[in-house]
Amino acid sequence: MTCKGILGVDVGGTNIKAALVFGRKIERRTKILSMAHAGIRRSIEQLKSVIEPFRQEICCIGIGIAGIIDSKNGVVIFSPNLKGWNNVPLTEYLHSEFNVPIRVLNDVNAICLGEWKYGAAQGCDNVFLFTLGTGVGGAAICEGRLLFGANGFAGEFGHTTVNPKGPKCICGHYGHLERYVGAEYIVARAKRKMKRQKSSLTRQDALTPEIIAREARQGDAVARQTFAEVGYYIGVGVANILALFDPEIVVISGGIARAGKLLFAPVRDTARRLVLGAEHRRYKIVPARLGDDAGILGAALFAQSRGKPTEIS
Known about the structure:
The chain is an alpha/beta fold and 313 residues long. The protein folds into 2 domains: 6-111 and 293-303, Nucleotidyltransferase, domain 5 (2-Layer Sandwich); 122-287, 2-Layer Sandwich (Nucleotidyltransferase, domain 5). The chain has 9 helices and 13 strands. The protein has helices at residues 40-51, 90-98, 107-118, 178-181, 183-194, 209-217, 221-245, 261-274, 293-303; strands at residues 6-11, 15-22, 25-33, 60-65, 68-70, 75-78, 86-88, 102-106, 127-132, 136-142, 145-146, 249-253, 284-287. The strands form 3 sheets. Strands 3-2-1-4-8 form a 5-stranded mixed sheet. Strands 11-10-9-12-13 form a 5-stranded mixed sheet, with helices on both faces. Strands 5-6-7 form a 3-stranded antiparallel sheet, with no helix packed on it. Helix 3 packs across helix 9.
């Protein structure tokens, strides 16, 4: 396909970001605040306004959106970030306006594709990536192909069970990984400890995982214990992923992953202790490299795919 460039779009609950992409090179960007709760019509208008300035420079568009996506048909089945988005034929709506090929996929799948092709997992055929933030998302590439599953639910790492008798998750079930390592639960864990131990965290006006990580690096016992426990639970989840998928590499993305050794040491230690045949496996557990660009690059890459939505050129 001869073209000037590909537009990668990342639709979030806070921002809609787009960039003109040539291979792995981003030439030009734009970002607007998302009116996620204003309804489908307003959100579509916003998407069109983001795409419009690039109209004459693109030959196709790739869009990453959080939620359950029917990538084959370009339908957003459900998105937790966009009010009223249920069974929305997004590519149909946009194609009538821009008349170029448009492909839609889950946002974590887009991040995974970006890191696989251009980032931390470059050169690997079997990859699992998960994002750590408010929620916990996941995506897998198996034998060089993005894994969707029969219903588009593949990779829901945050809603794997690590303790059947554990606390209730926001989804209504119990003991899910997200309930132990999502951002608000990391903060809650630290606050519980602060009631029993002295901590420099008490001097903070508002706690975030990033602040807890900073205080942990400076030696605060509560902060260090918090990350050791969070790392343990992530390690339990990673051990399950290693057993199921046998990936060459597990990539951890999201702001919390920037905690570095504080997080990765207990993750790696726990996974090694729990996974079957650890001494015979070759795998790495690493942080993502591309930051916010991963989703845009991955969406642009997906826009170029041919045939089945798992096939990436």
